[in-house]
Each structure stands twice: as structure tokens, then as C-alpha cells.
Amino acid sequence: MDGIASLLLDVPQFKVLAKASDVPQAMDYIQTLQPDLVITDISMGETGGLELTRFIASHYPLMKVIVLSMHDDVQHIGTMMDAGANGYLLKNVRQQELQHAIISVMEGGQYVQQSLSTKFAKAMQQDTQEKPLLSPREIEILRLIALEYSTLEISERLFLSPHTVETHRKNILRKTKVKSVIGLINYGRSSGIL
User: Which residues contact 171 (CB under 8 A, 6 or more apart)?
Assistant: First the structure.
């Protein structure tokens, strides 16, 4: 972290308030100084950066977090971003990109180091494609709704209670963000379910 601090000391618009060597010390500084941005090492002890990022996200939601790491795999990036990090950089980041990342994050964006961003974006897109919006049971019920089966008929056909079918129907409407049977049919056709 000393290297990162030295990269920032030369930049007038950034002020380094403190440097912490472990998570408890970092938490103390955060509570006392309440900085706008925390740059954390992913490896501050056993769970270090992850634990600290979760702490900040839950206690100081407006505070920004950029994670520094030597790990360039998608899993680490995803875990830290899910925990509440706003940025993810490798420890070998150049001064110019570090400054750009800080400015992007402080303006409300997210930033993943350029050398990692394409790989991360592809993985996120693939992950979204692999997770269908509706469960297999919901797809089954949507198909029966499209065939004009009533709630009672669906419950008898699938051996479910009418209440369970209604719950599934409400979940389908909520997930697909449509308001009517026609909307459901249009969604089913556009998504390839029907």
C-alpha cells in the first residue's frame, strides 16, 4: 500500500488521510476519519479486503471502495464487486490508470482495470445468459397459462394447490415485469419459451 500512497501524494486533488496495516486498524480509521474513498488490499490478513469491503458497504454506503489485488481472475473480481467494491485494480496499476479509476468511482461509476475489464464483462454476460429468469416450474406454468388453462386446471395438471399456482403466477409477472396474460405470452415468445 505504500507504493499506492506514494502514487497519490503527487496528485494535488487527492489527500491520503491514513494507512492501515490490518482490518481492525482500517475500521478504526474509517470510523474516525470517514474518508470519501478507501483503497484496500484484498489480502489484509485472512479475509482482509473482503471483510473490510462488506463492513464499509453495510455501515457507510456512500463511502467508495477500490480493491487492490494480485489476483486477475473473474471470480475474485466478482466476489469483491458483489461485496460492495466500486473498483478493482491490480497491484501493478500505473499512476495514470489509478487516478482515472479514483475519479470514475468518485463520480458514481464502477471501474475494473482495463486489462481485466473485457474478461470480466464477458464472464458477467455469460453468467447472466446461463441463469434463466424463470425456474423450470415457472416456465411450465407460463406455457399452460398461454394455452388458456385456469389456475384450477393448472393445479390439477401439475398436482399443486391453487394457492401455489397463484404464487408462481405472481412471481412470473414480477420477474418478467408484465401485467397481463398477453404480456406473458409476448414475453414467452420473445424469450423462446413458447
Answer: 138
Asked if 78 and 53 count as a contact pair (C-beta separation under 8 A), the reply is no
Q: How far apart are the first and last CA of the chain?
A: 55
Look up residue 194 and give its DSSP letter: -
3-state secondary structure 61-87: CCCEEEEEECCCCHHHHHHHHHHCCCE
CA distance 3 to 24: 21
pLDDT in tens, 56-114: 999 999 999 999 998 888 888 888 988 899 999 998 889 899 999 999 999 999 999 98
Other Cβ atoms within 10 Å of 31 Cβ, number: 11
